[in-house]
Amino acid sequence: MSEILLPPIWVNTIQSLKKMTEDLAAQTRVAVDTESNSLHAFREQVCLLQFSSPKADYLVDPLALKDLSLLSPLFANPKIEKIFHAAEYDLICLRRDFGFSFVNLFDTMQAARILGYPAVGLDRLLGDKFGVKMDKRHQKANWAARPLTQEQIYYARFDTHYLFDLRDVLEQELREKERLEFAVEDFARACSLDEQKQKSNGASWERFSGRKDLSLRELTVISQLCKWRDKEAEKLNRPPYKVVMDDVFVMLAKNPPEKKVDLSAAGLSEKQIKLWGDQVLGAIRHGLESPLVERRQAERKDDAVLRRLEKLKAWRKKVGLEMRVESDVILPKPYLGVLSETPPKSLAELRYLMKDTPSRVERFGEQILKTLGVKHAN
Length: 378
What we know:
Nucleotidyltransferase, domain 5, 51% helix, flat, DNA polymerase, domain 1, alpha/beta, 3 domains, 6 strands, 6-stranded mixed sheet, 17 helices
């Protein structure tokens, strides 16, 4: 696919934002993407929004504009389809930072997954379908830095520019494989706030609590080290792992040093020891003297629930292999828990429990009931 591309329009004033929203509001569909700085900040934020219409590509600078409420009607308009690739993370970030709500979405990555593509990255799909080459090195760039490089701008516009063509190709394939209904239902569920998964940043010591190789005393030391690291990372506005890595905390907890000279054995660099050696030793001492933390216990499910869960997993894996798709395409994860914990006794009950995906009930309902041991499922 060869074409002459006009430069993307940089949107960093209220006037240019209004002009862009007027263009987008007149369309029946727009392509959307975001770039965040999760690898470069303590609390990530959306640092760039990309939009494409049939007329133009836009790069919106939320760091300059601050107030993006003019975009709310666009995302909430059921008459305008919003095309994303890998929408889940973008929706989480846009809800978190701007409070947007969403309706009428098409996710090209989920469409590709439902079709059974072995590789669903945008670079791979655009390369295979249209011969477009993308440089994915910029995925990990610091998108909060200004000005953006020409390479970043080039990369960012490509995340939306070809989504219209990709969407149309994938929709046709979904129709041919009679899987479009699966996709439409998944897109609608993605718009639901109930599906929202918050990304934690500066996570506490509880991330370590599932490790069986750590004693409660060692976990207590790690908890104090994490408290110190989170404060330091927030002050420096960088991700906690860029202060001290998790593996270092495990080494420090298992072999608590008493002097700064001993910190290097756990993996701390000379610079880290110079900057934070005293604070690290203080956190370790505090952890050795503090009351023991309590290890969070995972809720134990009833044996009958676990048996149903394993049966459903085995069934959806088998069907997934037959259809050459990942197993969660057959039965998305939320329904695994619902059906194993509150098993339906009839097709009518199954329809209620899976009311957000009636096409899967139509396609697999009898098999699901049979898997759950419901008699007379046919």
